[in-house]
Amino acid sequence: MSKLRGAMIGVGFFAVNQLNAWHDIEDVEIVAICDRNPERLNKMGDRFAIAARYQDAAEMLAREQLDFVDIATTVSSHRTLVELAADHKMPVICQKPFATSLHDARAVVATCNAAGVPLMVHENFRWQTPILAVKNMLASDRIGRPFWARFSFRTGYDVYAGQPYLAEGDRFIIEDTGIHLLDVARFLLGEVTTIATSVQRINNTIRGEDVATMLMSHAAGATSVVDCSFASRPEFDRFPQTLMEIEGEKGSLRLDRDFSLTVVDSEGTSRADVSPFLLPWAERPWHNIQESVLNIQKHWVQCLRLGTAPATSGHDNLKTIALVEAAYEGAKSGTTVRPGL
Ligand code: NAD
Ligand code: 89Y
């Protein structure tokens, strides 16, 4: 079987992880890249030995013979680019957040459905090794039915150095990082029925909110808190880790900053090391996220080969986008909101 021929649109700060991960997947060859910025285009083209380089995505899609396209631009271009891929009947991956509103997200999903092309949102946090370990622990039923949880991401890491656009938008932490934790909450505890949100801006040099606290009710009965901050000064800064605690009817679990998973159940207390693998191209502190990029991209290849829907399909991710929208709505109105769909 010949390798899948892929192309990337947007080869900036984060795409290097995606290109490294594609390079690790034997079944895939990235045959073309596109970026409006010629310096970035040439830098990445040289680094990954990709000869076909375009500044215009439409030209690339018209000229290249491809099996899929992977979009890693920032959100304002996502709708146009995914719809362009759909016009070419091209299976497409799009980085999170895949749209700036639920309205746009629905439109993009409808366009891909109508064109019959698979759409996967690159929502990679749920593919992190420690989070998959928590998922397996819940599935084993050792702690029983979860009734309470906290998902926490608190840091003082200078995220603006690598991603300066995060300081510029009206929306920041919920749309950029909280979105991952909301998706993880859905992944582990099921769909959300209500959300109440408080936001703060502590760093006055940025436009959006850099602290958010969300309280959610899940249809299956659990209550969860999602809290995230880029304004914290913790003793141990564990950027970009998600820490969690889950209490169930038969026990509890805790995912700690040293990647230990502690479980308390009827047998007592046990601890397991659920550290991510440090890939050869990975760099601390990003290695946990970098491994999840490889995991989600392997999943995409499997889905393309088998013709199955990705776990984070556009359709699935509508529910995560709906939570983001409901969080902003609730923060503004000071009310508890039912996420729309
Ligand atoms: P970036 O600005 O560094 O890179 C984006 C690149 O896209 C730029 O080089 C820009 O020139 C190019 N671009 C923009 N519009 C284009 C267009 N229409 N055609 C061709 N090229 C275009 O941004 P980034 O930090 O790499 O973020 C990209 C995306 O990745 C964002 O959506 C961000 O939220 C997401 N991201 C995800 C994770 C994760 O863990 N999943 C982590 C960081 C960033
Ligand atoms: O942009 C964010 C993301 O998606 O994952 C980590 C990040 O780079 C900063 O929180």
Automatic annotation (TrEMBL):
<dbReference type="Pfam" id="PF01408">
    <property type="entry name" value="GFO_IDH_MocA"/>
</dbReference>
<dbReference type="InterPro" id="IPR036291">
    <property type="entry name" value="NAD(P)-bd_dom_sf"/>
</dbReference>
<dbReference type="Pfam" id="PF22725">
    <property type="entry name" value="GFO_IDH_MocA_C3"/>
</dbReference>
<dbReference type="InterPro" id="IPR000683">
    <property type="entry name" value="Gfo/Idh/MocA-like_OxRdtase_N"/>
</dbReference>
<protein>
    <submittedName>
        <fullName>Gfo/Idh/MocA family oxidoreductase</fullName>
    </submittedName>
</protein>
<dbReference type="InterPro" id="IPR055170">
    <property type="entry name" value="GFO_IDH_MocA-like_dom"/>
</dbReference>
<feature type="domain" description="Gfo/Idh/MocA-like oxidoreductase N-terminal">
    <location>
        <begin position="5"/>
        <end position="121"/>
    </location>
</feature>
<dbReference type="InterPro" id="IPR051317">
    <property type="entry name" value="Gfo/Idh/MocA_oxidoreduct"/>
</dbReference>
<feature type="domain" description="GFO/IDH/MocA-like oxidoreductase">
    <location>
        <begin position="132"/>
        <end position="254"/>
    </location>
</feature>
